[in-house]
Write a structure and sequence with these properties.
Helix Hairpins; Heat Shock Protein 90; 3 domains; five-stranded mixed sheet; 61% helix; 13% strand; binds adenosine-5'-diphosphate
Amino acid sequence: MPAGTPQPLLSLYVQYARRKSELDAILEGHRDKLDADLAELRAMTRNDSRQVLLLLLALGAGVLAALLVGSWWLVRRGLKPLKTLTTAVSRVSEKDFRLLLKREDLTEELVPIHERLTDTLDALRRAFDREKQAVGDISHELRTPLAALRTTLDVALRKPREAEQYRITLSDCRDIARQLSKLVDRILMLASLDAGQASPSRLPVDLADMATECLAVIRPLAESQNLALVGDFPKELRATTDPDKLREVLMNLLHNAVEYNRPGGTVTLKLQRLGSEIRVDVTDTGIGMMPDVQEKIFERFYRADASRHAVGVHAGLGLAIVREYVNRLHGTIEVHSSPSEGSRFTVVVPAAI
Ligand code: ADP
Protein backbone atom coordinates (compact mmCIF):
# COMPACT_ATOMS: atom_id res chain seq x y z
CA MET A 1 0.00 0.00 0.00
CA PRO A 2 1.40 3.42 -0.75
CA ALA A 3 2.57 5.45 2.24
CA GLY A 4 0.18 8.09 3.48
CA THR A 5 -2.96 6.46 2.02
CA PRO A 6 -6.03 7.36 4.19
CA GLN A 7 -7.82 4.52 6.06
CA PRO A 8 -11.20 4.45 4.28
CA LEU A 9 -9.53 4.42 0.96
CA LEU A 10 -7.35 1.55 2.06
CA SER A 11 -10.34 -0.45 3.14
CA LEU A 12 -12.02 0.25 -0.20
CA TYR A 13 -8.91 -0.75 -2.04
CA VAL A 14 -8.68 -4.03 -0.08
CA GLN A 15 -12.32 -4.64 -0.58
CA TYR A 16 -12.03 -3.80 -4.21
CA ALA A 17 -8.92 -5.93 -4.60
CA ARG A 18 -10.67 -8.89 -3.17
CA ARG A 19 -13.72 -8.45 -5.29
CA LYS A 20 -11.73 -7.94 -8.45
CA SER A 21 -9.94 -11.24 -8.05
CA GLU A 22 -13.24 -12.92 -7.43
CA LEU A 23 -14.65 -11.03 -10.30
CA ASP A 24 -11.74 -12.12 -12.44
CA ALA A 25 -12.36 -15.68 -11.46
CA ILE A 26 -16.03 -15.33 -12.23
CA LEU A 27 -15.21 -13.61 -15.43
CA GLU A 28 -12.71 -16.34 -16.27
CA GLY A 29 -15.43 -18.88 -15.59
CA HIS A 30 -17.85 -16.98 -17.82
CA ARG A 31 -15.29 -16.62 -20.53
CA ASP A 32 -14.61 -20.32 -20.50
CA LYS A 33 -18.28 -21.02 -20.59
CA LEU A 34 -18.77 -18.49 -23.33
CA ASP A 35 -15.90 -19.99 -25.29
CA ALA A 36 -17.42 -23.41 -24.86
CA ASP A 37 -20.84 -22.08 -25.87
CA LEU A 38 -19.30 -20.28 -28.79
CA ALA A 39 -17.49 -23.42 -29.90
CA GLU A 40 -20.69 -25.37 -29.58
CA LEU A 41 -22.56 -22.67 -31.44
CA ARG A 42 -19.93 -22.64 -34.14
CA ALA A 43 -20.19 -26.42 -34.45
CA MET A 44 -23.94 -26.17 -34.59
CA THR A 45 -23.82 -23.36 -37.16
CA ARG A 46 -21.33 -25.35 -39.26
CA ASN A 47 -23.59 -28.33 -39.05
CA ASP A 48 -26.68 -26.27 -39.87
CA SER A 49 -25.06 -24.47 -42.77
CA ARG A 50 -23.90 -27.83 -44.15
CA GLN A 51 -27.45 -29.03 -43.90
CA VAL A 52 -28.77 -25.86 -45.50
CA LEU A 53 -26.21 -26.25 -48.28
CA LEU A 54 -27.23 -29.86 -48.81
CA LEU A 55 -30.85 -28.79 -48.80
CA LEU A 56 -30.14 -26.05 -51.32
CA LEU A 57 -28.20 -28.46 -53.50
CA ALA A 58 -31.01 -30.97 -53.38
CA LEU A 59 -33.52 -28.20 -54.10
CA GLY A 60 -31.39 -26.92 -57.01
CA ALA A 61 -31.06 -30.44 -58.43
CA GLY A 62 -34.79 -30.91 -58.07
CA VAL A 63 -35.58 -27.62 -59.79
CA LEU A 64 -33.08 -28.43 -62.57
CA ALA A 65 -34.57 -31.87 -63.08
CA ALA A 66 -38.07 -30.39 -63.10
CA LEU A 67 -36.93 -27.75 -65.58
CA LEU A 68 -35.33 -30.36 -67.82
CA VAL A 69 -38.38 -32.61 -67.76
CA GLY A 70 -40.68 -29.59 -68.21
CA SER A 71 -38.71 -28.21 -71.14
CA TRP A 72 -38.44 -31.65 -72.74
CA TRP A 73 -42.20 -32.03 -72.43
CA LEU A 74 -42.83 -28.52 -73.73
CA VAL A 75 -40.46 -28.97 -76.68
CA ARG A 76 -42.01 -32.36 -77.45
CA ARG A 77 -45.46 -30.84 -77.28
CA GLY A 78 -44.41 -27.85 -79.38
CA LEU A 79 -42.71 -30.04 -81.98
CA LYS A 80 -45.60 -32.49 -82.33
CA PRO A 81 -47.43 -30.49 -85.06
CA LEU A 82 -44.12 -30.04 -86.88
CA LYS A 83 -43.55 -33.78 -86.67
CA THR A 84 -47.07 -34.39 -88.00
CA LEU A 85 -46.33 -32.07 -90.92
CA THR A 86 -42.93 -33.72 -91.58
CA THR A 87 -44.54 -37.17 -91.57
CA ALA A 88 -47.24 -35.95 -94.00
CA VAL A 89 -44.60 -34.41 -96.30
CA SER A 90 -42.50 -37.58 -96.27
CA ARG A 91 -45.56 -39.57 -97.40
CA VAL A 92 -45.91 -37.43 -100.54
CA SER A 93 -44.85 -39.29 -103.67
CA GLU A 94 -45.26 -38.99 -107.42
CA LYS A 95 -48.33 -41.25 -107.05
CA ASP A 96 -50.02 -39.15 -104.39
CA PHE A 97 -49.28 -35.43 -104.04
CA ARG A 98 -51.75 -34.90 -101.20
CA LEU A 99 -50.67 -33.77 -97.72
CA LEU A 100 -52.56 -36.24 -95.58
CA LEU A 101 -53.24 -34.29 -92.37
CA LYS A 102 -55.97 -32.28 -90.76
CA ARG A 103 -55.61 -28.53 -90.40
CA GLU A 104 -56.62 -28.83 -86.73
CA ASP A 105 -53.46 -30.89 -86.07
CA LEU A 106 -51.32 -27.86 -86.84
CA THR A 107 -50.49 -24.81 -84.76
CA GLU A 108 -51.39 -21.36 -85.99
CA GLU A 109 -47.80 -20.68 -87.13
CA LEU A 110 -47.75 -23.81 -89.28
CA VAL A 111 -50.98 -23.07 -91.12
CA PRO A 112 -49.38 -20.67 -93.69
CA ILE A 113 -46.57 -23.19 -94.28
CA HIS A 114 -49.17 -25.91 -94.78
CA GLU A 115 -51.08 -23.73 -97.26
CA ARG A 116 -47.90 -22.91 -99.17
CA LEU A 117 -46.89 -26.55 -99.27
CA THR A 118 -50.34 -27.58 -100.48
CA ASP A 119 -50.21 -24.97 -103.28
CA THR A 120 -46.70 -26.03 -104.32
CA LEU A 121 -47.64 -29.71 -104.31
CA ASP A 122 -50.73 -28.90 -106.35
CA ALA A 123 -48.62 -27.05 -108.92
CA LEU A 124 -46.18 -29.98 -108.94
CA ARG A 125 -49.01 -32.45 -109.48
CA ARG A 126 -50.36 -30.39 -112.39
CA ALA A 127 -46.87 -30.16 -113.92
CA PHE A 128 -46.41 -33.89 -113.42
CA ASP A 129 -49.80 -34.64 -115.04
CA ARG A 130 -48.94 -32.32 -117.94
CA GLU A 131 -45.63 -34.09 -118.35
CA LYS A 132 -47.32 -37.51 -118.39
CA GLN A 133 -49.97 -36.23 -120.78
CA ALA A 134 -47.28 -34.76 -123.05
CA VAL A 135 -45.34 -38.04 -123.16
CA GLY A 136 -48.58 -39.86 -124.07
CA ASP A 137 -49.53 -37.27 -126.69
CA ILE A 138 -46.08 -37.16 -128.25
CA SER A 139 -45.92 -40.96 -128.48
CA HIS A 140 -49.39 -40.98 -130.01
CA GLU A 141 -48.51 -38.29 -132.58
CA LEU A 142 -45.26 -40.03 -133.53
CA ARG A 143 -46.90 -43.41 -133.81
CA THR A 144 -49.19 -42.36 -136.68
CA PRO A 145 -46.49 -41.15 -139.13
CA LEU A 146 -44.17 -43.97 -138.09
CA ALA A 147 -46.90 -46.52 -138.84
CA ALA A 148 -47.49 -44.82 -142.22
CA LEU A 149 -43.76 -45.03 -142.95
CA ARG A 150 -43.60 -48.72 -142.06
CA THR A 151 -46.71 -49.59 -144.09
CA THR A 152 -45.40 -47.72 -147.16
CA LEU A 153 -42.08 -49.60 -146.94
CA ASP A 154 -43.77 -52.98 -146.25
CA VAL A 155 -46.03 -52.60 -149.28
CA ALA A 156 -43.09 -51.57 -151.50
CA LEU A 157 -41.00 -54.56 -150.37
CA ARG A 158 -43.75 -57.13 -150.71
CA LYS A 159 -42.76 -57.96 -154.34
CA PRO A 160 -40.23 -56.77 -156.90
CA ARG A 161 -41.23 -53.47 -158.50
CA GLU A 162 -40.32 -51.11 -161.28
CA ALA A 163 -37.73 -48.40 -160.62
CA GLU A 164 -40.43 -45.74 -160.96
CA GLN A 165 -42.54 -47.41 -158.25
CA TYR A 166 -39.52 -47.46 -155.92
CA ARG A 167 -38.98 -43.78 -156.68
CA ILE A 168 -42.60 -42.97 -155.72
CA THR A 169 -42.27 -44.99 -152.50
CA LEU A 170 -39.03 -43.24 -151.56
CA SER A 171 -40.62 -39.86 -152.29
CA ASP A 172 -43.61 -40.75 -150.04
CA CYS A 173 -41.22 -41.84 -147.30
CA ARG A 174 -39.32 -38.58 -147.62
CA ASP A 175 -42.58 -36.59 -147.20
CA ILE A 176 -43.50 -38.54 -144.07
CA ALA A 177 -39.96 -38.07 -142.69
CA ARG A 178 -40.26 -34.30 -143.33
CA GLN A 179 -43.55 -34.15 -141.45
CA LEU A 180 -42.03 -36.15 -138.62
CA SER A 181 -39.11 -33.80 -138.39
CA LYS A 182 -41.45 -30.75 -138.39
CA LEU A 183 -43.42 -32.36 -135.59
CA VAL A 184 -40.25 -33.01 -133.59
CA ASP A 185 -39.16 -29.40 -134.23
CA ARG A 186 -42.45 -28.12 -132.78
CA ILE A 187 -42.19 -30.36 -129.74
CA LEU A 188 -38.62 -29.16 -129.15
CA MET A 189 -39.72 -25.56 -129.64
CA LEU A 190 -42.37 -25.93 -126.92
CA ALA A 191 -39.84 -27.65 -124.65
CA SER A 192 -37.40 -24.78 -125.10
CA LEU A 193 -40.20 -22.25 -124.42
CA ASP A 194 -41.07 -24.18 -121.25
CA ALA A 195 -37.44 -24.12 -120.20
CA GLY A 196 -37.60 -20.32 -120.36
CA GLN A 197 -35.25 -20.11 -123.33
CA ALA A 198 -36.13 -18.22 -126.51
CA SER A 199 -36.51 -14.82 -124.88
CA PRO A 200 -37.62 -12.19 -127.44
CA SER A 201 -35.24 -10.04 -129.44
CA ARG A 202 -35.97 -6.31 -129.96
CA LEU A 203 -35.52 -5.19 -133.53
CA PRO A 204 -37.03 -2.48 -135.73
CA VAL A 205 -39.47 -4.30 -138.01
CA ASP A 206 -41.28 -3.19 -141.16
CA LEU A 207 -44.62 -4.89 -140.48
CA ALA A 208 -46.01 -4.11 -143.96
CA ASP A 209 -43.05 -6.00 -145.47
CA MET A 210 -43.52 -8.86 -143.05
CA ALA A 211 -47.24 -9.17 -143.83
CA THR A 212 -46.55 -9.09 -147.61
CA GLU A 213 -43.95 -11.86 -147.21
CA CYS A 214 -46.30 -14.05 -145.16
CA LEU A 215 -49.08 -13.69 -147.73
CA ALA A 216 -46.63 -14.61 -150.51
CA VAL A 217 -45.60 -17.78 -148.66
CA ILE A 218 -49.18 -18.90 -148.00
CA ARG A 219 -50.55 -17.94 -151.45
CA PRO A 220 -49.74 -21.22 -153.31
CA LEU A 221 -51.56 -23.22 -150.60
CA ALA A 222 -54.53 -20.81 -150.63
CA GLU A 223 -54.75 -20.91 -154.42
CA SER A 224 -54.58 -24.72 -154.45
CA GLN A 225 -57.77 -24.62 -152.38
CA ASN A 226 -59.36 -21.90 -154.44
CA LEU A 227 -59.24 -19.34 -151.63
CA ALA A 228 -58.98 -15.57 -151.95
CA LEU A 229 -56.16 -14.03 -149.94
CA VAL A 230 -56.66 -10.41 -148.83
CA GLY A 231 -54.07 -8.11 -147.25
CA ASP A 232 -55.34 -5.05 -145.37
CA PHE A 233 -52.55 -2.94 -143.85
CA PRO A 234 -51.00 0.51 -144.33
CA LYS A 235 -47.82 0.85 -146.40
CA GLU A 236 -46.01 2.31 -143.43
CA LEU A 237 -46.31 0.21 -140.33
CA ARG A 238 -43.31 -0.18 -138.08
CA ALA A 239 -42.68 -1.72 -134.71
CA THR A 240 -39.86 -2.73 -132.41
CA THR A 241 -40.42 -6.36 -131.67
CA ASP A 242 -39.15 -9.91 -132.20
CA PRO A 243 -39.67 -10.41 -135.97
CA ASP A 244 -39.13 -14.20 -135.92
CA LYS A 245 -41.74 -14.79 -133.26
CA LEU A 246 -44.27 -12.39 -134.81
CA ARG A 247 -43.75 -13.97 -138.26
CA GLU A 248 -44.29 -17.43 -136.77
CA VAL A 249 -47.55 -16.19 -135.18
CA LEU A 250 -48.82 -14.76 -138.49
CA MET A 251 -47.82 -17.87 -140.46
CA ASN A 252 -49.53 -20.26 -138.02
CA LEU A 253 -52.75 -18.25 -138.02
CA LEU A 254 -52.75 -17.88 -141.80
CA HIS A 255 -52.02 -21.57 -142.22
CA ASN A 256 -54.99 -22.51 -140.02
CA ALA A 257 -57.23 -19.95 -141.78
CA VAL A 258 -56.46 -21.75 -145.06
CA GLU A 259 -56.56 -25.29 -143.63
CA TYR A 260 -59.91 -24.85 -141.87
CA ASN A 261 -61.52 -22.89 -144.69
CA ARG A 262 -63.89 -24.04 -147.41
CA PRO A 263 -63.29 -23.96 -151.18
CA GLY A 264 -64.07 -20.54 -152.56
CA GLY A 265 -63.63 -18.89 -149.18
CA THR A 266 -61.54 -15.92 -148.14
CA VAL A 267 -58.63 -15.34 -145.78
CA THR A 268 -57.93 -11.78 -144.65
CA LEU A 269 -54.81 -10.51 -142.92
CA LYS A 270 -55.37 -7.10 -141.35
CA LEU A 271 -52.77 -5.08 -139.44
CA GLN A 272 -53.26 -1.68 -137.84
CA ARG A 273 -51.68 0.53 -135.26
CA LEU A 274 -53.86 1.44 -132.28
CA GLY A 275 -52.05 3.94 -130.07
CA SER A 276 -49.02 2.19 -128.64
CA GLU A 277 -50.19 -1.21 -129.87
CA ILE A 278 -50.31 -3.22 -133.06
CA ARG A 279 -53.48 -5.17 -133.75
CA VAL A 280 -53.45 -8.15 -136.09
CA ASP A 281 -56.65 -9.85 -137.30
CA VAL A 282 -56.61 -13.08 -139.27
CA THR A 283 -60.13 -13.78 -140.49
CA ASP A 284 -61.44 -16.74 -142.45
CA THR A 285 -64.79 -17.82 -143.86
CA GLY A 286 -64.19 -21.45 -142.91
CA ILE A 287 -65.74 -24.14 -140.76
CA GLY A 288 -65.65 -22.09 -137.55
CA MET A 289 -65.78 -23.55 -134.05
CA MET A 290 -68.28 -24.26 -131.29
CA PRO A 291 -67.70 -22.26 -128.06
CA ASP A 292 -66.46 -25.36 -126.16
CA VAL A 293 -63.88 -25.97 -128.89
CA GLN A 294 -62.73 -22.34 -128.79
CA GLU A 295 -61.86 -22.76 -125.13
CA LYS A 296 -59.49 -25.64 -125.83
CA ILE A 297 -57.71 -24.77 -129.06
CA PHE A 298 -54.68 -23.21 -127.32
CA GLU A 299 -54.05 -26.40 -125.35
CA ARG A 300 -51.24 -28.61 -126.51
CA PHE A 301 -52.19 -31.51 -128.79
CA TYR A 302 -55.81 -30.39 -128.92
CA ARG A 303 -57.57 -30.93 -132.24
CA ALA A 304 -61.29 -30.44 -132.69
CA ASP A 305 -61.36 -33.12 -135.35
CA ALA A 306 -58.39 -35.45 -135.08
CA SER A 307 -59.46 -37.44 -138.13
CA ARG A 308 -59.13 -34.34 -140.32
CA HIS A 309 -55.35 -34.62 -140.44
CA ALA A 310 -54.42 -38.16 -139.54
CA VAL A 311 -50.78 -37.70 -140.46
CA GLY A 312 -48.58 -34.64 -140.41
CA VAL A 313 -47.65 -31.54 -138.51
CA HIS A 314 -51.26 -30.97 -137.48
CA ALA A 315 -50.75 -32.36 -134.04
CA GLY A 316 -52.58 -29.57 -132.25
CA LEU A 317 -49.37 -27.73 -131.36
CA GLY A 318 -49.61 -24.71 -133.68
CA LEU A 319 -51.85 -22.54 -131.51
CA ALA A 320 -50.06 -23.63 -128.32
CA ILE A 321 -46.83 -22.27 -129.82
CA VAL A 322 -48.66 -19.13 -131.04
CA ARG A 323 -49.94 -18.44 -127.53
CA GLU A 324 -46.47 -18.92 -126.02
CA TYR A 325 -44.95 -16.55 -128.59
CA VAL A 326 -47.66 -13.92 -128.05
CA ASN A 327 -46.96 -14.12 -124.30
CA ARG A 328 -43.24 -13.62 -124.99
CA LEU A 329 -44.16 -10.55 -127.08
CA HIS A 330 -46.16 -9.23 -124.09
CA GLY A 331 -49.35 -9.41 -126.14
CA THR A 332 -52.76 -11.05 -126.07
CA ILE A 333 -54.63 -13.38 -128.39
CA GLU A 334 -58.38 -13.90 -128.72
CA VAL A 335 -60.63 -15.89 -130.98
CA HIS A 336 -64.14 -15.12 -132.20
CA SER A 337 -65.79 -17.87 -134.16
CA SER A 338 -69.15 -19.24 -135.28
CA PRO A 339 -69.66 -22.72 -136.67
CA SER A 340 -70.06 -22.65 -140.47
CA GLU A 341 -69.40 -18.90 -140.61
CA GLY A 342 -65.71 -18.66 -139.90
CA SER A 343 -63.22 -17.46 -137.33
CA ARG A 344 -61.26 -14.35 -136.45
CA PHE A 345 -58.05 -14.52 -134.45
CA THR A 346 -57.00 -11.18 -132.95
CA VAL A 347 -53.48 -10.60 -131.68
CA VAL A 348 -52.55 -7.35 -129.92
CA VAL A 349 -48.88 -6.67 -129.18
CA PRO A 350 -47.05 -3.55 -128.01
CA ALA A 351 -45.62 -1.52 -130.90
CA ALA A 352 -42.37 -1.51 -128.96
CA ILE A 353 -41.41 -4.26 -126.54
P1 ADP B 1 -53.19 -28.03 -135.75
O1 ADP B 1 -51.74 -27.91 -136.07
O2 ADP B 1 -53.65 -29.42 -135.52
O3 ADP B 1 -54.04 -27.26 -136.69
P2 ADP B 1 -53.58 -25.91 -133.93
O4 ADP B 1 -53.06 -25.80 -132.57
O5 ADP B 1 -53.10 -24.96 -134.94
O6 ADP B 1 -53.31 -27.41 -134.34
O7 ADP B 1 -55.17 -25.83 -133.87
C1 ADP B 1 -55.85 -26.59 -132.91
C2 ADP B 1 -57.25 -26.85 -133.35
O8 ADP B 1 -57.98 -25.63 -133.40
C3 ADP B 1 -57.34 -27.41 -134.75
O9 ADP B 1 -57.22 -28.81 -134.73
C4 ADP B 1 -58.73 -26.96 -135.19
O10 ADP B 1 -59.67 -27.86 -134.69
C5 ADP B 1 -58.92 -25.63 -134.45
N1 ADP B 1 -58.66 -24.48 -135.32
C6 ADP B 1 -57.54 -23.75 -135.38
N2 ADP B 1 -57.67 -22.72 -136.25
C7 ADP B 1 -58.91 -22.80 -136.75
C8 ADP B 1 -59.65 -22.04 -137.70
N3 ADP B 1 -59.14 -20.96 -138.30
N4 ADP B 1 -60.91 -22.41 -137.96
C9 ADP B 1 -61.46 -23.48 -137.36
N5 ADP B 1 -60.81 -24.26 -136.45
C10 ADP B 1 -59.55 -23.92 -136.16
